[in-house]
Amino acid sequence: MKNKLLVINPGSTSTKLAVYQHSNLLWQANIEHSAQVLSDFPTIYAQLDMRYQHILQALEEHGDKLEELVAVVARGGLLPPVSAGAYEVNPEMLEVLEHNPVNHHASNLGAALAYRIAHPLNIKAYIYDPVTVDEMIDIVRITGLKEVMRHGQGHNLNMRAAALHFCREQSLDYKDVNLIVCHLGGGITLSLHSHGRIIDMVSDDDGAFSPERAGGIPAFRLAKLACAKPYPVVMKQLQRNGGLVSHLGTTDVRTVEKMIDDGNEYAHLVYESMALAVSRCIAKLAVVVDGAVDAVILTGGIAYSERFTSMITKRVSFLAPVHILPGENEMQALMEGAMRVLRGEEPSHVFHKEEPLNATV
Asked: Which of 183, 219, 232, 283 is the most exposed place for a label (fewest CB within 10 A)?
C-alpha cells in the first residue's frame, strides 16, 4: 500500500533522510559523508550515485520498500527565482540544477535524488520552498545602481513553515495577515509575508551580521576591501569568517554567552549589536506594509537563546507581538509541504527555465 513519504535533505557533508506515514515520523537518519570520500568526486553533481545508493541502503535497513512510497520530497536547490510552494521535479529542472544553477551547493542534488527514486515508481517527486523563492514586489527591488537589483534569497523553507505554523496555532488565515519572520542561524535572513506572499526579504548579505556572515557592509569600504584582496578571499571573509567569527572567533552563541557571563564586555557589545542589527531589519520590513504587522516570528537555532530573543523583543514589540518558534525543522517543513499537496490543500507548480517573477508595484 502506497502510504509512506520519503524526505531527502542533502547537505554539504551529509544526507538527511526521513520516512513519514500519514504525517507521522517513522524514522530519520543522518548519513555522514567524510571529507576523504567527498574528495574523490570532481563536482557536487558527481556525488549523485553515491548518495542514491546510501538512500536505498537506509530504506532497506529500516524495512521500507520503494513500492510503499506515495511520493518523494526533497530540499530545493539553487534554481533561478521561483514562487513559494511545491514544484514537481521535471527534466527541465534537473538540467538547470546540473548545468546552470545560481550557485553550486549540495542542495542541488535533492531534486535529482527524489526524481531518481520516484520516476521508475510512477509517483511524484517534489521540492518545496527552495532558497531562491523570490516573490518580492518591484518597488523593493530598486537600488541606487540600475544594474544592481535586490533579489529574494533566504531560509525560505523554515521561515514559511514557521509562518504557516503560527497561523494554524492562532487560527488565522495565512492569506489575511502580515508577518515578519526572522531565521536566526549561521546566516540570518528575514522575510515579510503579506496576504500569502513573501513580498520583501532581507538576505544574509543585505542585513544583520550573524555567527558566520558579515551582513551588510558600508558600500565604499566594501569596495575598498574588494579591490585590495582577491575575490575568493573577500567572499570567504564575508560568508564564513564574518560576524561573530570575525569579532569573537566563534560561531557558537553559547560560547559567546559564556564569555559575557565571564565579564567580557566586548562580547556583550558585539552580541547586543547583532540583536540590534536584526531589530533594525525587522523595522525596515515593517514600513513596506505601513507598519501594519500582525506578528513578528523568531525562528532558527539561535531562537533557542532566551537572552538573544529577549534583546530583539525589547526593541521591536512596539510593532507587533513577538512569537518564538525555535529550530530549523527542515524535514518537518518538507513533509508538511508535500502533504498539503497530496491532500489537495495547495497546488504544485511546474518549473520552466524562464519562469517570470511574480512581482508588481
From this structure: 232
